Description:
Blueprint: H1 2-17, H2 22-27, H3 33-40, H4 43-51, E1 55-60, H5 62-69, H6 72-77, H7 81-90, E2 92-94, E3 107-110, E4 126-132, E5 135-139, E6 145-155, E7 158-163, H8 173-179, H9 183-191, H10 195-199, E8 204-209, H11 211-216, H12 218-221, H13 226-234, E9 237-239, E10 253-255, E11 261-267, E12 270-273, E13 276-285, E14 288-293, H14 347-353, H15 375-378
Parallel strand pairs: 1-7, 8-14
Antiparallel strand pairs: 1-2, 3-4, 4-5, 5-6, 6-7, 8-9, 10-11, 11-12, 12-13, 13-14
Helix pairs in contact: 8-9, 9-13
Amino acid sequence: MQFKLLSVAALAATASAQTMNLTATLMNNSMLSSLTTYVGLFPSILSSLESATNITILAPSNAAFGMLLNSTAGMALANNSAAIQAILTYHVLNGTYYASNVTSNATFIPTMLSSPAYANVTGGQRVEAITEGMNVTFFSGLLQNASVTQANINFTGGVIHVIDSVLTIPQTIAATAEAAGLSAIAGALTDTKLVSAVDDLMDVTVFVPNNAAFQAIGSAVGNLTMSQLAGILEYHVINGTVAYSTDLMNGTMIKTLNGNNVTVTIMNGSVFVNSAKVVTPDVLVANGVVHVIDAVLNPNATTLTANPTTTMVAFAGATSVSMVPFTSGIPTPTSMIGGGAAAGASSASAAMAASSSSAGAWAPMRTGAVGAAALFAAGGAFMNV
């Protein structure tokens, strides 16, 4: 009898030491009961994740979902099952990344979010992974950051990291500009009727001047025709290449949508595009990445070079104006990044200022998402976390 008891105990110990499948792993972690319920609402997602291998799941804690559900964005999700599914797949990384694999050098990792309604990036939408001090942090749309609170939970398909907030799906360029207070570029795109053209491109890099940059050349932009303004805006767009900050190399010349080249210079640790300094890099958008710059680029002044001590104005004779151009009719921003409503904000302050309270943060890239009224009510038990 004693032998049998010892055998059962040994068998139980062996079973507990074995790596569990995804469902068992989630159910075994009390902090992830909300995520378990969410995933269970979508059998196709659950089945796909159960059969997947070599993946990393960024698992929002119950507290993270609680914060979301109490926000305007969370309330909007109740009527949008497509958005919920997109959010869930955005938390699944292609590849197994343990906490030790994330370093102080940013890495842009592809996720399983590839639905054309929400992402237009080859290989799936990205998250930025980086260590900040002792924290492993993941940045998503609008520079929202989520920190790992429990790392390296193994399951049969890969690894899970518990994070302290729900990731924000990157939005279109125009929506990101509006939400972040980059109202001048938002207005300029609207005035030139380029919103759809830019938002619908696949795999783009956009150098977005902040409001102060447009204000600094205010006397010049007032005399531009819409065709001339469109040409200037197109000079800020790289089509067909998603160039994150880690891809911007010193001396690189890149052809723009306008047809002319821009030149990347790295000097004293700062990145310049022609003579404009990148003040906020790596703002993820639905179809690529935005880098906020401190000056408007001029397609007729392509040879201007970087000056690390002075902000160079690329439009000869232009002077500053009291009001930021092109901002009439643009909604009040919900957050500030890269000198949107407050020029010259740093990356750190931008990340702190960005807010996920906007309902628009969960909208699809294009229309047509399926609504599901009372979806949360069906799983009401997990709303009280």
